[in-house]
Design a protein that fits this description.
There is one protein chain. With about 300 residues, the chain is mostly helical. It has ten helices and two strands; from the N terminus they run H-H-H-H-E-H-H-H-H-E-H-H. It has a two-stranded antiparallel sheet with strand order 1-2. Helix 2 packs antiparallel against helix 3, helix 4 runs antiparallel to helix 10 and helix 7 crosses helix 8. It is globular and about 65 Å long. The two termini are about 30 Å apart.
């Protein structure tokens, strides 16, 4: 088993408090949230130009990345291996391809059922204008949900419990989005919560998760002009979804379609099987052997 999952000697005093998983999660969130609030507040209050807003979205993605990096180095006192640049391009590119493929398969099935229809086009400018928001969401949400919540819970409760909890929370957070329903929240928990946690489990890094998340959102709104988690999408194509809500996803968008749920769940299961075969499933902390420094008798 990878050394990052082994238990060290029991900490004492304040160190025990700071290494308790729920406290770790809270502190990690604060490391990201505080600089994020400092930078985002003036952008939201004073920046009205759309082009500058898009630059601001990219800046906030960098701020979230920096806050997380600072937390790991300061509090966990280790290198940020989950964001190492070695091999990052391949994993990020694979994620981008996977996210685009999964949503395109979803749209292809919906089009075959007569649910998705293209009515025109908006041009490449609309497509590119949508990209910064996708990059922002991909970095921020993966850092918070997979990098902090799932990773720390996994070290404590093991892979399967951490996956279930992080997926439920991820789905529940989407209930606050426009057009959200209980089914939409459940769909996000199942299709995205499982898929993205499995991507982290497989690689033990965040790049595959980030790439998949970015491309899934961008393909929805930036290419097919489908609502992204209830938010309006105006991308390359002009389109409409016509049919029963269990297929169209209603106002929330195709993410709440049973088609998206089945497609992404199938992909998530494949990634989980691959992670299991690589031995990347972590047991709960109470089921793992406690590793303590070796002691030697005098004279040995």
């Amino acid at each position: 088993m990878n050394s990052q999952f082994e238990l060290s000697p029991t900490p004492t005093g304040w160190r025990r408090v700071l290494t308790f998983p729920l406290v770790q999660i809270l502190v990690a969130f604060l490391f990201v949230a505080i600089p994020f609030a400092v930078v985002s507040t003036p952008i939201n209050l004073f920046v009205t130009d759309k082009a500058l807003k898009r630059v601001g979205a990219l800046l906030l993605a960098a701020v979230a990345l920096g806050g997380y990096t600072a937390y790991v180095r300061v509090m966990e006192k280790r290198s940020v291996t989950e964001l190492s640049t070695r091999g990052a391009a391949l994993e990020l590119g694979t994620g981008l391809g996977l996210g685009a493929l999964l949503f395109s398969v979803t749209i292809g099935i919906l089009a075959g059922l007569g649910v998705f229809r293209v009515t025109g086009q908006n041009g490449w400018q609309s497509m590119l204008a949508f990209l910064p928001a996708c990059i922002f969401a991909g970095f921020l949400e993966e850092i918070l949900i997979r990098g902090i919540l799932f990773r720390i819970l996994e070290q404590w409760l093991g892979s399967w419990i951490a996956l279930a909890i992080s997926a439920i929370i991820f789905g529940a957070l989407h209930l606050f989005n426009p057009g959200a329903t209980l089914f939409a929240g459940a769909a996000i928990a199942i299709e995205a919560g499982i898929l993205l946690a499995a991507a982290y489990m497989l690689t033990r890094r965040l790049w595959l998760c980030i790439g998949t998340h970015i491309a899934w959102n961008f393909t929805q709104g930036g290419i097919y002009s489908v609502a992204v988690s209830g938010g309006g999408g105006k991308g390359l194509l002009q389109s409409k979804l016509v049919g029963p809500e269990y297929l169209t996803g209603g106002a929330f968008g195709a993410e709440a379609s049973v088609v998206a749920l089945v497609v992404c769940l199938a992909a998530g299961i494949v990634l989980l099987v691959m992670a299991i075969r690589k031995g990347h499933v972590v047991a709960p902390s109470w089921a793992r052997k406690v590793v303590r420094p070796l002691t030697h008798a005098a004279g040995q």
